[in-house]
């Protein structure tokens, strides 16, 4: 039986996220790992610096949070490791080894699926000396900052998400979907306000890219509302900015956050990240 160890932590931002100190994940025992999982569930995001993890160890680690999820664009997974997706601007033999600028634009991962991923983990393999920060926005803090009247207006609204629309309109990596990708990724609807299954806390849960409309509201009014809420949730009081170092592991709970990558000088620097997902459940 494991007993979660109480770990040394410091907040990433007042009231949101935790950096876990003095833990070497590759060597950690089961009780320490249970402490890491417990810290994640209490704080919405965790950071561990100075890690040295093989792809197989990363898969084993993410499996502590839930069954590792497959990736939609399979051509960018690490050879021999289908659960590890590569984000990179490197090319080998003239071919990209990963997706470049894949996560730029505020979003929540896999929102175009009926059961979006519960958490996302990024492991920094190589990072630019400047730029390429990852930003996380706290949806619970944003929800709690709204007036009761505004909360009442928003609660119950639903958003239409479309992978096909996302891939046809995104700034980077635009793509006409194959018949197979169209078939595997039909449009879905999700609530705008999401309830966390662990403790019932509510979060603003809009997204950009995949959202085509607020159900029952005409455009442009619907999309203007989504833009307004994304701008509010991603304003300074609710955002943590992570500056990467090689060996960092950053994980966040997609049920109560939005995130975005940021640009960097890709003529000067290389950036390579390994991304893993753990399966989630149907939002309500
Ligand atoms: C992502 O959105 O999955 C990646 C974000 C980043 O590259 O910083």
Short description:
By secondary structure, this protein is α+β, with helices and mostly antiparallel strands. The protein has 7 helices and 18 strands. The two termini are 32 Å apart.
Give an overview in words.
- A hairpin with a 6-residue loop joins strand 12 (193-195) and strand 13 (202-204).
- The mean pLDDT is 97.
- It contains seven helices and 18 strands.
- The chain has a single domain (9-278), classed as Clavaminate synthase-like (Double-stranded beta-helix).
- By secondary structure, it is an alpha+beta fold.
- Succinic acid binds next to strand 17 and strand 18.
What keywords describe this structure?
single chain; 284 residues; 28% strand; binds succinic acid
The appropriate CATH architecture is 4-Layer Sandwich
Instruction: Give the full name of the CATH homologous superfamily.
Output: Clavaminate synthase-like
CATH structural fold name: Double-stranded beta-helix
Number of separate strands = 18
The mean pLDDT is 97
How would you sum up the global shape?
Answer: globular
Outline the low-pLDDT stretches.
none
Helix content: 10-25%
Radius of gyration: 18 Å
Biggest beta-sheet profile = 8 strands, mixed
| The number of domains | 1
Neighbour order of strands in the largest sheet: 1-2-3-16-8-18-5-4
Number of helices: 7
Structural class comes to alpha+beta
One letter per element, helices H and strands E, the order comes to EEHEHEEEEEEHHEHHEEEEHEEEE
